[in-house]
Amino acid sequence: MTKSRDDKDDKQTSHDPSRRKFLKGVGIAGAGAAVVDKLWIDVEARETQADPSQSMSGSVKVTLDINGTKRTAQVEPRTTLLNTLRNHVDPAVTGPKLVCDAGTCGACTVLLDGKPVYSCMVFAVDATNRKIVTVEGLGTPEKPNAVQAAFVEKDALMCGFCTPGFVTSISAYLKTNPNPSLAEVREACKGNFCRCGTYPRVFEAALAAAKSGKV
Amino acid sequence: MQQQTPAPKPKKKVKVTRTVNGIEQEVEIEVDADSGPGWGPNDKHRLLNHAMTRVDGPQKVSGAAHYTYDMRPPGMLYARILRCPNAHARVTKLDTSAAEKIPGVAAVIPGPLSELRFAGAPVAAVAAKTPEIAADALKAIVVTYEVLRHVVHAQDAIKPNAPKVVEEEANLQQKAKRGDLPKVEAAFATADAVVEAEYISARIHHTCLETHGMVVDYNGGDTATVYASTQGTFTIPGDAAQALGLPQTAVTAIVQHMGGGFGSKFGIGVEGMLACKLSKQTKTPVKLMLTRYDEFVMAGNRSGSWQKIKAGVKNDGTIVALQARQYRLGGVGQGSQAGQPYIYRAGESYREIYALHTNEDSTVAMRAPGHPEASFAIESLMDELAYKIKMDPVAFRKKNLADEVYYRQLDKGAKAIGWERRNPVAGGNPGPLKRGMGCAVGTWGGGGNNQCKVDVTIGRDGSVTVAVGTQDLGTGTRTFTRAIVAEELGLQLSDIKEEIGNSKLGGANSSGGSTTAASLSPSVKDGAYKARMLFAEKVAPLVDNAKPDEITFAGGKVSGKGKTITWKQACAALPSAGITAHGEWRSDLQATGIHGAAFAEVEVDVETGHIKPIKLVHVQDGGLPLNRLTLESQINGGMIQSLGMALWEGRVMDARIGMQVNPGFGDYKIPGALEIPEMIPIIDDDDKREVVIGIAEGCIIPTLGAVVNAVFNACGVRVRETPITPDKILMGLMNNGPMSA
Known about the structure:
The structure holds two protein chains of two kinds. Chain A is an alpha+beta fold. Chain A folds into two domains: 21-137, Ubiquitin-like (UB roll) (Roll), CATH 3.10.20; 139-212, Orthogonal Bundle (DNA polymerase, domain 1). Chain A contains seven helices and seven strands, in the order βαβββαβββααααα. In chain A, a hairpin with a 2-residue loop joins β5 and β6. In chain A, α4 (146-154) crosses α7. The radius of gyration of chain A is 18 Å and the shape is globular. The two termini of chain A are 16 Å apart. Chain B has three domains: 2-65 and 449-586, Aldehyde oxidase/xanthine dehydrogenase, molybdopterin binding domain (Aldehyde Oxidoreductase, domain 4, 2-Layer Sandwich), CATH 3.30.365; 68-148 and 212-289, Aldehyde Oxidoreductase, domain 3 (Alpha-Beta Complex); 304-446 and 591-736, Aldehyde Oxidoreductase, domain 4, CATH 3.30.365.10. Helix content of chain B is 25%, strand content 26%. The chains are: A alpha+beta, B alpha+beta.
């Protein structure tokens, strides 16, 4: 599995010619200049002065397909998908966790068109017209998917802060390889960090979920 | 609600451990003389000492568990902290005017310190409508610093002309001294062999995945709710209330789920104080969670250590003399380090312990503060002595350990790792990929105290609720709490509901020093037992007026005098408010003192210096295992964190600029999925003590030493400074000369 850190495929965000192209609002703290160069997006702009003492903020209305439901939010072009889910969509989607905000730990992993990505490394404006699935969309406490059920059964969690990321990565991986080896499971979760030390049981849970045949 | 009013009871005095801000203190307290039944034999439990899946697991795997970081009260502002870029400085001017003008910025306040003694110290804080705008505001603050001289390396800080870290204190301060030096010197004269070495362990970061911080839900009224990422629910309301200008009773702290603390999360901290002040000023809810960078530079860390030890040994393996000079490397704080010879008998011994300041963020408690540091040095030394006199390291340890529990644990561990496969000649295996094994032991307290107040309520509808303010850090607190009540009342886990993590519920201790299980479980047991007896009184008329202690509760049924009714039928006899029994701590249901032994197998590539962990074993006792499944998970976790200390983790400081150069997961390496070896957690069931003892900290201690010793056995390079990075292996191989194999 490859973690898509800057998932730039051919899909472009929707473009409504009635709206102005907009490049402002990539604030002084905006990340990912290469991505910004390609950022031609539709906005309902609230332009502000380019006075350096003011933030160069503009707001963008995005419609996101989150766990099968269309949700809208007003965000800045620089707002990450993760921060949009957690801070702007109402009610909040907080399964994906903010841990490093730098694409290193995997706690914010979500599926973008079925592919696991670090949602702290994706701008919300780049996630429109994509299918976003978070850990909440994979199963519920009452009706967990096979990976979630195996995580509980094998005690593949302690504090649980990394767990949504692991569950999401492994759920996606087992779709592509329903019968993995231990080595393949390790590879599949090498982009996710756990600090409590649950790894051995995460591996066990992934293998048990695969064996259950319910993936 | 009917509250049981206990008759005055005889009292007794016991010594217990209390943790204040992560520092353990032994205090004598008065408690009720113990009453009520004990746990019974460890192998006779229906739920306890079995593998139970954690009751909050389904919430955690589906994103339904809500952490402090997930809270978002309406209108909430996002706060950030501006950090000092200098290792030692004073702020001469703080210009926040530009930041305040940024649309969306609600408040900018100065930090609490006049002198900043480490890079990363808080200078100011902002609250804004989004975290993105808050980040802009930080960049717009203009600070003028008077830069002072700094020192960040211990070897520099100890020099006489070194810059002073803390104005009023010397950088080097003697903290403790023990032993009779002339006697030690005389004992050295009787030794057949002497080893003298210097060991350095790096400062380690907790790297809690949920960073420090809180969400202050306050709108300018008379009350506030504080969601805190903390190990001590009850350490929050007092200080938060003070910062908000409210009476303590007006603040409720809530800790439903917590994303890792490992000793670093007690009290509101600087970040909590700033969050409260911002909330007070704006009369708006504020979230202040540290960024990952903040977490590295200002959230505390594990003490580093620098230890110079000399030991003398007889040819039969008996250590006759030991002399140690130990430096605790605590940055601007005091650091921590257990005294040598740690848990070994070492004949005549003498030690001096010093705190040595540098311009670095203060150390705070971290899982077994001071123990892995001391263990690493003494276990390395034990190995060096054993090799010197050509004795098996396991046999050598048995010879010098007083407590025989370690003997069986060493045997169990040796069997599990396959010690017989070990080549006694260090570096003696052929080929460039050389395997080796090592071992080590460790100890911890783990006893509880009387701070947990538990209410067990049985409702007329058949519901059972156990309420206590304590927090569940992910150690399985909810699960064992339910299990104790369920077992007492003959019910299933799913029949019980727990209310925890709320300062408005019964008092509870902080989760520090592995004290949670031994503090909470006796109070829960006491409450459950009292609820059972009270319930039995009420239900007696339904079972032919059987005496309360003759009435049994099993399989969801209540029986007495040959008559059996269902739980629900029995509950229907209760008053409308049900019954509530209050549980207090009982010292006889817990104890202190645990033992652990760790074994490690590693493979060293002598061409690259790369070390691959192959297998880890940890044998751990702890009295009655409340839940075998979560206990094994904690043992695994301890091994993995200890492995991280051995091979990868360490705070790296640049001496010239005085800043940490690896403040992120990209550069500070924590254990990942690819490095995890085969792992065998072993619960030492030969411990027949029918008491609960906390084990969390015990599990992190010995693996570090076992890994270091395994590396030596594999390749013949004794690395005396953690982490053992490949460069140290290659340097050691070069110094050792051509490999014999």
